[in-house]
Amino acid sequence: MTDGAQKHSGQDEVPATPDAAVPDGPTAPVSGQPAYGQPAYGQQQPPQPQYGEYAQAPNGQAPYGQAPYGQAPYGQAPYGQPAWGQPDWQQPGMQQPGVGAPGWTPPPKPGIIPLRPLSFGTLLGAPFQMLKRNPKATFGSALLIQGIVGVATIAAIVPFTLWIVARVDNASAEDQSAVVAGSVGLGILVGVVLFAVSLLASALLQGVIVLEAARATLGEKLPLGALWKRVLPRVLPLVGWLLLLGIGFIVAFALIVLVAVLIFAQGESFLGLGIAYSVLGGLGLLVLSVWIYTKTLLVPCAIVLERLGLFAAIKRSWVLVRGAFWKVFGVNLLVAVIVNAIAQVVTAPLSLLVGFGTTLLDPNGSGDQMAFLVISNGLVLFVTIIIGAVASVVQSGTVAFLYIDRRIRTEALDLDLQRAVEARESGDEFADPYLPTDRLSPAAA
After folding, report:
1. Do 14 and 137 sit in the same domain of this protein?
2. pLDDT of residue 370
3. Which of 10, 26, 52 marks a domain boundary?
4. Is residue 66 part of a domain?
5. Are residues 12 and 141 in the same domain?
6. Lowest-confidence range among 3-7, 49-53, 70-74, 272-276?
7. Looking at the structure, do residues 20 and 158 belong to the same domain, yes or no?
8. Range 86-97 average pLDDT
9. Is residue 142 in some structural domain?
10. What is the pLDDT of residue 131?
11. Position 236 confidence tier, pLDDT thresholds 50, 70, 90
12. The total number of structural domains that make up the chain
């Protein structure tokens, strides 16, 4: 009898006859079993079992050394179940591992995420784990960059505003129009400079967070200086991308506004048409902007990690998002909503406290009230910068992990990452696993 391969038939059972002698010892099966207490000559023998059947003992008793039907002897599995260490041949495709056979093992996790397609919960939690794991490189970079932008903005706007006010007050009535026009031109120039600084800072921060997410996936923890050094060569393409995205939106918005103005200029009879066009045009621009933004959301990742040019990165993002538009859009939107909700919960009470506190402490509006107002607004600004830094890290990290997930699902990036980790642990030279396959080389590591 082969274990786990025979099935009980029950069709050829021969019941014991009343006049049959009962042997003193336990009865053993006749088929190929060792004799223990053989029955006397002339006794009725149970029939020989056919292939695939159990031998039946007299009186319905199980043979010696075998348990009754449905029960297992000591150390053996019950009927219909494979013994320990033996596969279950009765269930195709459901082979069970025996002793020493490898069973299911979880995917490797050298860093903050497992090397497998990422679940929804992992995509939401990974950016916060990255922030917690390397706060100096992530939160430190965001706080430093946003702090520099904030200080530069205040340093440019406050003196410029005071200077403009002084010029207008000191100008004569005839020169005030020219002074105001010149001030508007200078204000636009200052705004352009500040926009360029903000754009550069955003590109640098986005590149740093994307690179940190990629290295944290491999279990690496780079310091702030090393991250910045690796990202700096890719800053210009990142700036170009942000600039292209902003200019494209401004041009589309300007065209809609221009057409609306032309419609309204036709007279009151076109008022309804102008309103309808403005509403539909605005909604259409919103939908188009969201669609393009989602399809190109992974452009910074392709620029930094794959070292692609601007237009090649746009094409790359378009391909990676294909077939997963709603997932990419939904995860990114949900993270943005969560971050903004947290920011409002923290900053709204502070703003209300500042407003009521100023009135309660000094209702007459003396110098003490002004001092309190400056200090309290400075505190609110500081808290806002901190929350903005955290939000920037989390949102940029979400984009990076969406990129990794899409490449795992479409290109089996997890296998390349696992090979890179194994090579690093064994001391071998390995290529950057994030580079496209046709660009892999040991020198790129």
Report:
1. no
2. 67
3. 52
4. no
5. no
6. 3-7
7. no
8. 44
9. yes
10. 92
11. very high
12. 2
CA distance 278 to 205: 36
Picking from 29, 52, 75, the residue at the C-terminal end of a domain is 52
pLDDT of residue 341: 92
The pLDDT assigned to 34 comes to 47
165: phi then psi, degrees, rounded to nearest 5: -60, -40
**Secondary structure of the chain as H, E, C letters:** CCCCCCCCCCCCCCCCCCCCCCCCCCCCCCCCCCCCCCCCCCCCCCCCCCCCCCCCCHHHCCCCCCCCCCCCCCCCCCCCCCCCCCCCCCCCCCCCCCCCCCCCCCCCCCCCCCCCCCCHHHHHHHHHHHHHHCCCCCHHHHHHHHHHHHHHHHHHHHHHHHHHHHHHHHCCCCCHHHHHHHHHHHHHHHHHHHHHHHHHHHHHHHHHHHHHHHHHHCCCCCCHHHHHHHHHHHHHHHHHHHHHHHHHHHHHHHHHHHHHHHHHCCCHHHHHHHHHHHHHHHHHHHHHHHHHHHHCCCHHHHHHHCCCCHHHHHHHHHHHHCCCHHHHHHHHHHHHHHHHHHHHHHHHHHHHHHHHHHHHHCCCCCHHHHHHHHHHHHHHHHHHHHHHHHHHHHHHHHHHHHHHHHHHHHHCHHHHHHHHHHHHHHCCCCCCCCCCHHHCCHHHC
> Do 236 and 326 sit in the same domain of this protein?
yes
Claim to verify: residue 48 and residue 124 sit in the same structural domain: no
Domain boundaries, position 44: 1-52
d(CA 300, CA 210): 8
How far apart CA 75 and CA 65 sit, in angstroms, is 12
Place of tokens 């219909």: 80
> What is the value of pTM for the model shown?
0.70
For the segment 4-16, the average pLDDT, to the nearest whole number, is 41
Question: Chain-wide mean pLDDT for the chain?
Answer: 77
The answer as to whether 85 is a domain residue is: no
Asked if 263 and 273 touch (Cβ cutoff 8 Å), the reply is yes
Asked whether the beta carbons of 296 and 314 are under 8 A apart, the reply is yes
Specify if 423 maps to a domain: no
Q: Quick one: 10 and 153 in the same domain?
A: no
Residues 140 and 289 both lie in one domain: yes
Residues 214 and 347 in one domain: yes
